[in-house]
Amino acid sequence: MVNVLVLDDDFFVGQIHARYVDEVPGFTALEPVRDLRTARDVIAENDVDLLLVDYVLPEGTGVDLVRETDIDAIVLSAVTDPQVVRSSLRAGALTYIVKPFAAEVLQNFLRRYARYRRYWEREKVGQADLERQLRNLHDAAAVGGTGASPAGSSTTTRILTALEEASGPMTALEVAEAVGASRATAQRHLAKLAEARTITVSLQYGNTGRPEHLYATR
């Protein structure tokens, strides 16, 4: 489970973002905080894996917290000054999401981030794999993001969720049944995800000798 701390001086906005987080399998939001001092106290007393921080705060900026911690972070802010965005990324933020945003913008990034986290569990890093992971982390199309139609985004997201929650690789038929889609629709989305290297594809040979594709998240 990825523990997420939301830092936003607007109580209601913080609660909304925390709810977005809780809707993503594998993520749980701690009680949102509204100031840097409280955020530091929470970090000192809890295991925090990811920060969602606003830029503008009464006593400083969320990026101040990003700089002083060794915790992955995302900046969520209405500030669109290019230098502010650049400084946030330079300070160590994984990405910068401009407010207001739809729930799926953050949630799709969290799903990509979940796969990015799993990458670091391996014993060594390969250049090609590393470049692919970094590219997929910021590629909204990898989970049917802003470049896809709403229907495509929803189906792709459900497929990724099903694969992430599965105990092992799944066939196209199993994916279709899990998300309530036809096998042809599931295969079409799976093919796009495989092409984007968001998921892996392997072959399983049955009794008939005819191979069947198995799909899994990276």
TrEMBL record:
Task: Using the record's annotations, give every residue carrying the modification 4-aspartylphosphate.
Answer: D54
A molecular function annotated in GO for this UniProt entry is: phosphorelay response regulator activity
May I ask which residue range the UniProt record assigns to the signal sequence?
A: none
Gene3D superfamilies to which the protein is assigned, alphabetical: 3.40.50.2300, Winged helix-like DNA-binding domain superfamily/Winged helix DNA-binding domain
Instruction: Keywords in alphabetical order, please.
Output: Phosphoprotein
Q: Which residues form the Response regulatory domain?
A: 3-114
- Taken from the record, one Pfam family name reads HTH_20
Transmembrane segments annotated in the record for this chain: none
Query: What name appears for this protein in its UniProt entry?
Result: Transcriptional regulator, ArsR family
The lineage, from the top, is: Bacteria, Bacillati, Actinomycetota, Actinomycetes, Micrococcales
